[in-house]
Every structure is written in structure tokens, then in C-alpha cells.
Design brief:
This protein is α+β, with helices and mostly antiparallel strands. Helix content is about 30%, strand content about 30%. It has helices at about 10-20, 40-50, 100-115, 170-175, 180-200, 205-210; strands spanning about 30, 55-60, 65-70, 75, 80-90, 120-125, 125-130, 135-145, 150-160, 220, 225-235, 240-245, 245-250.
Length: about 250
């Protein structure tokens, strides 16, 4: 493996970002060689220096000891993947929720990966799968104050060159060494986060595109093992389920 593909630097990330984005945002970036969790690092950064309008922030780490996944699970994050937590100052109403935002980031990242010919599916609410194996995971969080949206936060883990657990897959495994530059894929995640904001402003398009890329058309209740057909995604990003004349809406 070419060691240059592991060389990291915020300057290199930003260089690729500007090359691949027509109107780049003014991101403030930090790269850590190793950390416990980029989510913890991001919280500390925000506490010291609040996020400013039009100046989103992101913390990358070459590897994490205790990366955070959904439902408190640990995300395996060794050297060779994109591990990042980002925050964007954005005003909005309570109709936005972390579930919808996570789907917006998921779709935006799928769009970037589809450009290199990879068929990526979305496992609701916010995992990306290739051939049923996990390529990426997304951890969205919204910060409200006084009933108004103040901050969008998202953690993204993308398997690129790294070793993966048995249920995972990396871009290198899918397409070989082509475009396997860690700085390029770090910039692609930033571009996806930018794009997610536009998708939030067009919820009908967002939900319809998510529906087209769903990994499965069935949902199995983990407690009852009852199988539901997935009818679609509503405007809040919830699954619309149907079975035997019954319909229900599922939220994370």
C-alpha cells in the first residue's frame, strides 16, 4: 500500500475540497493523529469557541479509540478511514429533527460515492451499505435553544483504506486502489455535509430519493420479529410501515 495515501493534513483536505466544490464554505478544520472520540473533541471545541455563522467546524482524527456509533455502540475506527465530527450554525424550526438531518447527510454522501460507480444503499435511519455490508455510519445531533434550532452536529465514519470488522466493507475492497486518497475522501465528506443543507430545504426530494435507495423494502421488529413492508418515508424522515391492513410510522 502506498504510504502517501495515509499522509494527512488539513491543508491537503481543504485543497481537495476546493477542487471538488463549486462554492466551498469557509470550514475551520482540525486533524488529530489519535483521539478517544471526535464527538468528545468537537464538544470541547464548541465549549471553548462557539460556532459562528458561515464558519462550520470539523475535527478529523486518523484513528479513534472509542468512536461513537448509534445507540451508544462503539464504532471501530482504525487508521485508514475518515472519522470526523462537524458542527454548523443554522437557524430553523422544530420541524427539523436529527433523524431527517441524518438522512440528508446519508443521501448526500451516497451521491458522492455513486459518482465513482459504487451502488450504495441506505439502511434506515443512517447507515450506508454495499452488498449488505456497512461502508459508512452517520451520527446526527441537533442543538435547540428556546425552541429554535441553533446548531447541526454530525459524526461520520467512512471505511476507505482501513481494516474493517466482519460486517463491514471498505472502498478499497470495492474498487481497489483507484482514488484511494484519504484526504480526497475527507473532503468528499465535507462536500456531503454542505449538500445536506440544501437537501433539508427540499424535503419532498430528499425523502423520495431516500426511498429509491433503501437497502430493504421490509422492516423486522427486533422485539416481536413481526415483518412489515416499508411503504415509504414521511416528511419527518420516519419509516411508513404497512402489513395486513395496518399502517404505522416508525421513528428512531
Amino acid at each position: 500500500m502506498n504510504n502517501q495515501k495515509f499522509d494527512r493534513g488539513v491543508g491537503l483536505i481543504y485543497k481537495y475540497y476546493k477542487l471538488n466544490h463549486s462554492s466551498p464554505s469557509y470550514w475551520r478544520l482540525i486533524l488529530k493523529p489519535i483521539c478517544a472520540s471526535t464527538e468528545i473533541e468537537l464538544s470541547n471545541w464548541i465549549a471553548e469557541k462557539p460556532v459562528k455563522k458561515n464558519k462550520p467546524i470539523a475535527i478529523f482524527s486518523s484513528c479513534q479509540k472509542f468512536g461513537q456509533g448509534q445507540a451508544g455502540r462503539t464504532w471501530y475506527a482504525p487508521k485508514g478511514g475518515v472519522w470526523v465530527s462537524a458542527a454548523i450554525k443554522r437557524k430553523g424550526s422544530c420541524e427539523h429533527n436529527s433523524q431527517l438531518y441524518g438522512l440528508a447527510v446519508a443521501l448526500a454522501l451516497v451521491e458522492r460515492i455513486e459518482r465513482i460507480g459504487v451502488n450504495v444503499k441506505i439502511k434506515w435511519p443512517n447507515d450506508l451499505l454495499v452488498d449488505g455490508q456497512k461502508l459508512a455510519g452517520i451520527l446526527p445531533r441537533l442543538i435547540f435553544r428556546g425552541g429554535k434550532l441553533r446548531l447541526l452536529r454530525v459524526g461520520v465514519g467512512l471505511n476507505v483504506l482501513n481494516n474493517v470488522p466482519k460486517d463491514g466493507i471498505s472502498l478499497k475492497q470495492i474498487i481497489g486502489d483507484k482514488t484511494m486518497n484519504i484526504n480526497f475522501w475527507s473532503s468528499e465528506v465535507l462536500c456531503a455535509i454542505d449538500r445536506s443543507l440544501d437537501l433539508l430545504d427540499n424535503k419532498h426530494f430528499l425523502c423520495s430519493q431516500i426511498e429509491k435507495r433503501l437497502w430493504s423494502r421490509q422492516y423486522i421488529d427486533k422485539k416481536t420479529r413481526y415483518q412489515w413492508d416499508i411503504k415509504g418515508i414521511d416528511s419527518a424522515g420516519r419509516l411508513i410501515l404497512f402489513n395486513d391492513g395496518q399502517e404505522k410510522v416508525l421513528s428512531t
